[in-house]
Amino acid sequence: MDKLISMNLLHALLVIYLPAIVTIKPQTPECTTPSAGTGTCVPAKECQPVIDFIQRNSPLSQADKEILRSYQCSVENSVTVCCPDSQFVIPSSNNPDNELPPDVTNHRNIQLLPTECGPIYGRSIFGTNRAELYEYPWMALLNYRLEKSNTDFRCTGTVINDWYILTAAHCLITSPTLQLTSVRVGEHTITTDPDCEYFIEDSYCADPVQDIEIAEVIPHPGFVSKTFENDIGLIRVAHRINTTVESVRPICLPTTKDLRTRNFGNTNVVVTGWGITDTGKKSSELLRVFVPVVSEQQCRKAYQQTPAFVTRKQICTGGINGSDICRSDSGGPLTIAYLHNNNVRMIEYGIASFGPVACGQGFPGVYTRVVYYMDWILDNLKP
To answer: Domain named Peptidase S1: which ranges (predicted)?
Structure first.
């Protein structure tokens, strides 16, 4: 059969390989591709890069089909894809550099991640950067001993189950003058104990914070400090985290196929931390900011004069409108609300890796893309 297959057959292939899913229809046709490039939501048969991809790789391998599915945009009983801009070419699975996120659906340790995770706190007040008490209960602070016996919180992380904290690898590389000693969970305002919220009709206080010693640090073996490649790590704590209190709950991770192939679209993502603010000082209160995803091409161009190299294993955000990752936010989460076990939950898709010295000053913040490391995370979990 000739390589240039007919448009009717192309459309049939697209229908087969891009089955309909239920998702929220974006307000505009603009979207973000799985590699964080820019695109437009259009019917698949009108997307020339998709047509070219099928013609170039027919017959399609299973990996090729997964690539097509990952470009699905929003569907209402039709085949709609995030069609890349002309300068972006849909990758071929025949290229070893175009690695797809691992499928961990049947991983031997999948049961070590809780199914009850990422709760969405209903009292959230929008329009402010201040997080509400209990709003992000998976947040963890990493405590370091400094040269003169003082201690300081220098990085953050997230609770992923009763024994493990997910963070950045560079937060685990210490020195004689900077030793990681413990983690704190259940914190909201560092300067107050207990943390309380007061409302006209109600007031309540959180349980005491949990300061827990560290049993093991596990930086990714492929971490490169110069380029920030594979900037992901795990901490196993010395005793079980109490996740039954409202102030400490695990975050969800992208374990299923739908979560793995989720398209960011034009939805802002959420980053949280106690990082340095516009005042030049670290915040004592947990802060949040809603930031847009920046395309891989734009992000790579921003850092082209630096040793850092941006790849599809990273997510870039903000940097344009002045709000994003700041020092001391390292290791913290980039999250998105999405369906998890048929409930809307917060999913951690990124780990704060690096950004400009002054946050939000024209350079995007760069996050390790969690979906590409789910097999590594699960491989390193123990009961």
So the answer is: 125-382
